[in-house]
Every structure is written in C-alpha cells, then in structure tokens.
Design goal:
480 residues; mainly beta; Immunoglobulin-like; 5-stranded antiparallel sheet; Methylamine Dehydrogenase, Chain H; 2 domains
Length: 480
C-alpha cells in the first residue's frame, strides 16, 4: 500500500508548552477515560514458538487462573495494546495490524497491511481517532485510520538515523497532544549495538511534525537519554514524567532506569543502574513505590526482581530461571503481577502477589505455546481506578458443593442477549446456554452434564455470565 506523504513543512521549533498542571490533567484524563467501565476478568496472552506462528489466549485474572488457549492465530513475532475495548496486535514479521475482540472470544474484527518489510513495532492512539505506528526497518512513522484500516500519511524519521541510515524507532506513549517515541540508534554493522546515543522523539500530534527539543543544536533533536538502547515500553508517571529503561550494550553494565521530564526535555540521569540490578532490565512494571522487572545477568539467566522505583535500595529476587526464560511482566493494576515464563518443559504464566512477591500459582499456567506477552485491558502504565458496579451479576451458586445439579441466579440489562456457560478447570467449554433477549433477572439450573448430555466428573467448574463486554463468574464444586 503506498504511503501518502504529509504536506511538506519544517520541524516545529520548540514552542512554549501549556501550563504543566493543565497538560498533566489532560493527559491523565485521556488515559483514565480509556479504562473499561466494568471490572475486567480476563487478560490477553500472546504465545509463540518463533518458528511457525503465534496464538492468542485469554487468562482469567484471578485464581485458579483458567486459560483458554489458541482462540486466535497471530504472527510469530507480535506485540499488543489494549484500546477502546479491543486488542490491537502488531505483527512485526507480517507487517500488519490485527484487531481482536475479547467479547467475541478474540475473533478478528479487522486486519490491515502496513507495507511489506517495515517491521512495525508499536501502535499509539491519538485523541482524534487516528493512530500512529512506529517502524523498525523503515524511516517512517505511519499515520493510520485504525477503523478503515488505511494509511493516511507518514512522518519521516530519517533525521534521527545513525550512520547505517535507520533510527530504530520502537515503543511509543501519548501524553496529551504529544507522542513520545523511543529511538534506539543501533549500528547494524556492529551486531545491533548502540551507535552512540539514544533519544526520545517528540511529535506534535496537531501539527503532524517533530518538535525540535534542542533548537540551539544543528539539525532536528529529540530528548537525548542518559543511557542508550531504550528497549522496554515507556511508562507514564502520575506527575506527568516518563520512566525510561535503557539496556545499552548487551553484557555491559551501562544502562538503567531514568525519568524524563517531557515539558523541560531533560532526563534525571540513571537513578537505578544495571550494576545495581545485576544485569539488563528487559521489562518492568511499577507497583506503588517499587518496580518489578525482569533482569538478565552476565550469563543471560533471567530473574524476576523488585527494587525501589526511585532507586537507593538493593533488588529483592522473586524468582530465578536457569536460562533466558522470562519474557514479559505485567500488572493487573491491583494485587497481582503476571510473569511469562518460557522455560523448556514448564512454560506458562506465573502469578505473584504484587505486595509481597510470593508466588500465587502452584505451577506455571500452561498456555499451549510458550507465553511471550501478557496484556491486561488497561491503558499502558496506568492503574485500574475503582470501577462502577458491573451491569451483570451472579449470585452464589446453590447448592455448593453440588451433587450434581446447581442453580445459578443472575441479573443483567433487560432486553439484551446474554450467554451462560460452564468451563472446566483446564479452560475447556463444557456447556453453553445463549439467551437471545433476556430479562433483567433470571435463573439457570445446570444439571452437571456437558453439551452432549454426558455427566461430567467431579471437580471445580467456572460458571460464567457474559452480556456484551460485561462478564461475571462464579465457581462451583461438583461432587458425585
């Protein structure tokens, strides 16, 4: 698909920012406005073997963390974002965007190409309904219409490239009317090591132009980082600043954690160093006053550690792998941290108490192929606010334990279709009852049989009520 260039214009020379308080309020309001109205119950897990193709699964948020695997096929090298009730999967190898609907068991509702060979890395959504996609193997930041699935234009990233001609742009974060883009500047002739310095690029979304963050320097400048090679995603802080993690040269303790002031265009310097962490910080989430992250040591063995977010304290190890096994860490915005463990023979998602670091799962929750990324339905870097009551509720099943029949009473929005279903402890659908136009209150008696009328064995079963994107669930123990 051809790319239509935006109207030619010079870079914006750094104009005065709006008052800091107003800018922060607008940015945080935009992020919080995207949080689902009802409390969420499942999160997306991307899985892959890196050779053929990947899969998309849904993992229950809470114990016993039932997982439904292979609900959709995705690219073998893909990442995802949650936005406006949908999961947006960026297929790097396939150079396309695939949109999955969690309310329809991750059905693909849209898929569109970004042009072959561009190696897209991330997608960020603007307030006007359009989106931006960064490219690793091209000198373009693509402007797309995510609803129509078309490319609207592009902004060149060539001014930020190093000597090999590519700037290696990756993760993005929108705050108000500014889009921040990581620019690694890696030397592809030196095994992808940092060429010199890395930057955080700043795009004025209203103008569709780069902001020159250092007008006194020749050329077009972003915010120069203290460390090089910003590889993990960016994290917004409540005060409007951005936490950035750099990993520098692999095997060398030269990166760490820094905080960027997007208003002043300055960085704090390395508040936490790789030397203090004992290796490269591959991924991280901040939970209150502590950061939880995956660290790879000099032998490329990964560990899950926690350390003070502001620095000044030694890391505490929560879990250690015997190899380069840990791929991603995510937080549910409340009390749980999810770890993607790709260890041979025991791969799966592990869940930890966000406050104490105690592992909650007795064993990794199997996801079919090894898990690569967990994506809760939350805007990146924000906690879940107190949610209003869900429009659907389930009363406690009675009797519980059941032998073998159980009655389930529910409340939902009148006149809208809903679905009642039963799932076993391994995430397999046992029985389903769709109701095309349900009343506000009702009940269902499950007789302990599957969809074919066969008695199911004793065990724990999940009873789920779904109406649109709202979901409620209860568990019942069946005893025969």
């Amino acid at each position: 698909m051809p790319v239509a260039a935006l109207p030619a214009a010079g870079p914006e020379r750094r104009r005065p920012f709006r008052p800091v308080a107003a800018a922060l309020a607008a940015a945080l309001a935009a992020l919080l406005a995207a949080v689902p109205a009802a409390a969420w119950q499942e999160l997306l897990v991307l899985t892959t073997d890196y050779t053929t193709y990947g899969g998309a699964a849904l993992l229950e948020r809470d114990a016993p963390w039932t997982v439904r695997t292979d609900l959709q096929t995705v690219g073998a090298d893909a990442v995802a974002r949650w936005h406006d009730g949908l999961y947006w999967v960026v297929d790097r190898g396939g150079s396309n965007i695939q949109v999955l609907d969690p309310a329809a068991d991750l059905a693909t509702v849209r898929q569109f190409s970004l042009g072959a060979g561009r190696n897209p890395q991330d997608i960020a959504f603007a307030a006007d309904g359009t989106a931006w996609v960064s490219c690793y193997d091209d000198t373009l930041l693509l402007h797309v219409d995510p609803q129509a699935g078309v490319i609207l234009g592009a902004v060149s990233t060539a001014p930020f490239a190093d000597a090999d001609g590519l700037p290696e742009t990756g993760w993005m974060l929108r705050l108000g009317d500014r889009l921040f883009v990581t620019c690694q500047r890696l030397d592809r002739n030196d095994w992808w090591q940092p060429a010199d310095f890395s930057q955080l690029l700043v795009l004025d979304l209203a103008a569709g132009q780069w902001v020159d963050m250092d007008p006194a320097a020749p050329g077009l400048q972003g915010i120069v980082l203290a460390g090089a090679n910003p590889a993990p995603p960016l994290e917004p802080l409540p005060d409007g600043r951005i936490r950035v993690v750099t990993i520098g040269r692999f095997g060398v303790a030269d990166g760490g954690v820094e905080v960027v002031d997007p208003m002043a265009g300055t960085t704090s310097g390395l508040l936490v160093t790789e030397q203090q962490l004992g290796g490269e910080l591959l991924d991280f989430v901040t939970v209150g006053e502590q950061t939880v992250g995956i660290v790879s040591d000099a032998a490329f063995h990964t560990s899950l550690v926690a350390f003070p977010a502001a620095g000044g304290g030694a890391p505490v190890t929560w879990a250690t792998a015997g190899d380069y096994d840990y791929a991603d860490v995510a937080w549910d915005g409340a009390g749980q941290v999810y770890l993607c463990d790709r260890g041979l023979g025991h791969s799966g998602v592990r869940v930890f108490d966000a406050a104490t670091g105690a592992e909650l799962t007795p064993a990794p929750v199997a996801t079919g192929r090894p898990p690569f990324m967990c994506v809760p339905p939350l805007p990146t870097g924000t906690a879940a606010p107190t949610a209003p009551p869900s429009p659907v509720t389930l009363a406690p099943p009675f009797p519980n334990p059941a032998n073998p029949a159980v009655t389930l009473r529910w409340h939902a929005v009148p006149g809208r279709p809903l679905e009642l279903s039963v799932w076993d402890a391994r995430g397999r659908l046992v029985a389903r009852r769709p109701l095309p136009a349900a009343g506000g209150d009702g009940s269902w008696r499950w007789d302990g049989r599957d969809a074919a009328g066969r008695p199911v064995p004793s065990g724990v079963y999940l009873l789920r009520l779904r109406q649109g994107t709202a979901v409620a669930s209860r568990r019942v123990t069946l005893v025969r």
